[in-house]
Design a protein that fits this description.
This protein is about 40% helix and about 25% strand. By secondary structure, the chain is an alpha/beta fold. The protein has a 7-stranded mixed β-sheet with strand order 4-3-2-5-6-13-12, sandwiched between helices. It starts with a helix and ends with a strand. The site of N,N,N-trimethyl-histidine has 11 residues, from strand 11. Keywords: Methyltransferase, Transferase.
C-alpha cells in the first residue's frame, strides 16, 4: 500500500472512532437535522465566542459582568472562608475574576471546561493575577461527576455557572443539570447562576445575528470542525446562518440553512439536504425571573437572592440547598 493510501485510511479510522462521530451521525439522521451546541467550542470556536461577547449587539456578557460587580460583596458575605469555587463551562474565566477579587479566602478555584486551550490560558492568567490561589482545572463536560483532590473534598462548595449557559438546555434537561449540580456541590452547597431574561425580539435577534457576522462565523465553524475532525465535505459557502425566535418555547434557535439542494458526505454516509433545509445548532432559552426560580426549586434548590440590571436584560441568582 502506498504511503498516501495508508495515511488516508488511518485518517478515516481516527474519524470513525472520534468521540463525536456517533453524536454527529445521529443528529444528521433526524428529520430536523441537528448538531449539539457543545460542538461550537473547539479552539477557533472558543475564540469566536470571546469575540461575540464583545459585540455591541450581544448584551448578556457585559450586562452580567456589571451585575456581578455590584453583587460580588453580597455574594462574598455569604461565602464561608476556605470554600471551593467550582465553575461549570469556565471558558476564558473572565467573569470569574470579578468574584475572585471579592473572595480572597477561597481554598481553591476549580474550573471545568471542554476546551483544553481555554482552560490552559485561563489557568495561566489567573495564576499570574492571583498568585496564592490554588487552581484545579478539569477538562470535561460539566455534567461529569465533580472530583476534587482529597484535601479539598470536605470544603464547602460554591458553584458558578454564568453566561446563561443553562439556556442551552431544554427546561427538563436544565432541571436535571441543576439537580446534578446540587448533588456535586453537596449539603450546604450554593450556586451562583446567570440567566438571560425574556425580552423583545428587536433586541434578541440582533444579539444572535450581529452586523459584523461574528455569530455567523461561530455557527459555520461547526461545519469546518466536522470537515477537519471527521473528514466531512461541507462547503461552508453553501450554508447561511439564521437566528429565529420561537415565542411558544421562549427560545432563540440558531440554524445553518442550506443555500441549495446538496449531499453531504461524512464517515461513509451521504446526507441529502434540500434548498432551504436547515441544521439546527443551538437553543438559547429565555426566562422570566419567576419561571427560572420555579425551575430551580423543582431541581431542589432554594432561591435566596436575585440581581438584575436596570433594563431587566439579565439576571444573576443565588441558590442554596435551603433547610
Ligand atoms: C454561551 C450558550 C450563553 O446562548 O447566548 C452566543 C452562546 N450563541 N451567540 C448564548 C451563543 C450565539 C450563548 N451561551
Amino acid at each position: 500500500m502506498s504511503q498516501i493510501a495508508e495515511k488516508k485510511l488511518g485518517g478515516v479510522q481516527d474519524a470513525a472512532t472520534s468521540p463525536i462521530a456517533q453524536i454527529v451521525l445521529d443528529g444528521l439522521s433526524r428529520p430536523q437535522k441537528s448538531l449539539p451546541s457543545f460542538l461550537f467550542y473547539d479552539a477557533r470556536g472558543s475564540d469566536l465566542f470571546e469575540e461575540i461577547t464583545r459585540l455591541p449587539e450581544y448584551y448578556p456578557t457585559r450586562t452580567e459582568a456589571a451585575i456581578l460587580a455590584e453583587a460580588a460583596p453580597a455574594i462574598a458575605a455569604h461565602t464561608p472562608p476556605g470554600a471551593v469555587l467550582v465553575e461549570y463551562g469556565s471558558g476564558s474565566s473572565r467573569k470569574t475574576e470579578i468574584l475572585l477579587d471579592a473572595l480572597p479566602n477561597l481554598a481553591a478555584y476549580a474550573p471545568i471546561d471542554v476546551s483544553q486551550s481555554a482552560l490552559a490560558e485561563a489557568s495561566a492568567r489567573l495564576g499570574r493575577r492571583f498568585p496564592t490561589l490554588r487552581v484545579i482545572p478539569t477538562l470535561g463536560d460539566f455534567s461529569a461527576p465533580l472530583i476534587l483532590p482529597a484535601s479539598l473534598s470536605r470544603r464547602p462548595r460554591t458553584g458558578f455557572f454564568p453566561g446563561s449557559t443553562i439556556g442551552n438546555f431544554a427546561p427538563a434537561d436544565a432541571a436535571a443539570l441543576l439537580t446534578h449540580m446540587a448533588q456535586g456541590l453537596g449539603d450546604g452547597g450554593r450556586l451562583i447562576i446567570g440567566v438571560d431574561l425574556l425580552k423583545d425580539v428587536s433586541i434578541l435577534i440582533p444579539a444572535y445575528d450581529d452586523a459584523a457576522g461574528v455569530t455567523a462565523a461561530f455557527n459555520l465553524n461547526i461545519l469546518a470542525r466536522l470537515n477537519r475532525e471527521l473528514g466531512a465535505d461541507f462547503d461552508l459557502q453553501s450554508f447561511r446562518h439564521e437566528a429565529r425566535f420561537y415565542a411558544a418555547e421562549s427560545r432563540i434557535e440558531m440554524h445553518l440553512v442550506s443555500r441549495r439542494r446538496q449531499k453531504i458526505g461524512l464517515l461513509g454516509c451521504l446526507f441529502p439536504l434540500e434548498a432551504g433545509e436547515s441544521i439546527h445548532t443551538e437553543n438559547s432559552y429565555k426566562y422570566s425571573i419567576a419561571q427560572f426560580q420555579a425551575l430551580a426549586e423543582l431541581a431542589g434548590w432554594s432561591c435566596r437572592r436575585v440581581w438584575t440590571d436596570d433594563g431587566d436584560l439579565f439576571s444573576v441568582h443565588e441558590l442554596d440547598r435551603g433547610i
